[in-house]
Specification:
transmembrane; transmembrane helix; OPA_Antiporter; single chain; membrane
């Protein structure tokens, strides 16, 4: 019962919910946004989805590697050294969402859209992997 009353677990739960909601929103609505609102082809929209998922694979691996390395070099026993990395990944996700919403237009190249998708995948899947480890 003490676990449910602790503010840290609620903060981690809120962080996971935010990252999962961002990932789900990008994957579910990203294609429609590119096709219907910006007039891009189905190929460009599908490339965004593929890049988000590929970035997610990379983000999960990168999150594990970086947090394990941070834990090895950290001597702090009071706080988790993984949380700042989750915040960094989340900031990358916020930058990618900003670029997708305000920088991508009708003339944007598929390479640029794909690069944003890759960063978005890393930024959303990375914290999800970290929050699962930190909460346990």
């Amino acid at each position: 019962m003490d676990l449910v009353k602790g503010p840290f677990i609620w903060l981690m739960s809120l962080g996971y919910l935010t990252a999962f909601g961002a990932k789900t929103g990008a994957v579910d609505w990203g294609q429609l946004y590119l096709i219907q609102d910006l007039g891009h082809s189905q190929l460009a929209a599908s490339a965004l989805m593929s890049c988000i998922e590929a970035g997610g694979l990379l983000g999960g691996i990168l999150a594990g590697y970086l947090t394990d390395r941070k834990v090895r070099t950290s001597d702090s026993s009071r706080s988790s050294p993984r949380v700042p990395l989750a915040v960094l990944f989340t900031a990358c996700s916020a930058v990618a969402f900003h670029l997708l919403g305000f920088n991508v237009g009708r003339e944007s190249s598929e390479w640029w859209i794909g690069a944003i998708g890759l960063v978005l995948g890393v930024g959303t899947y990375g914290p999800m992997a970290i929050f699962g480890v930190v909460a346990s």
